[in-house]
Amino acid sequence: MIYETRVYRCLPGRLPALLKRFETITLKLWDKHGIKQAGFFTTLVGESNQDLTYLLAWESLAERDKKWTAFTTDPEWIAARAKTEEDGQIVLTIENQLLVPTSFSAVK
């Protein structure tokens, strides 16, 4: 397995809008495209309490490329994202990493 961590840093006060978008729109579209999430987290203590961190689980880089491209180019996603940002930008920055578990990791 390959795990992808993605950290979305929101503009001040916009984290609730991002959480709502994931809960009501994004996750349904991920289901449509076969994207598997492995967890979502907000920051209790850390650099910013305006962050959303989540993990995605992939079988391979090829699977990730195929499914992520299909999702990000889906007209339904493009329209929904634009609608949720009609009252302003939500996300300031996005950081991501692709991770491979070690031989001794509890998560494989």
UniProtKB/TrEMBL annotation:
Residues 3-105 form the NIPSNAP domain. Coiled coil: none annotated. Signal peptide: none annotated. This is NIPSNAP family protein. The lineage of its organism: Bacteria, Pseudomonadati, Pseudomonadota, Alphaproteobacteria, Hyphomicrobiales.
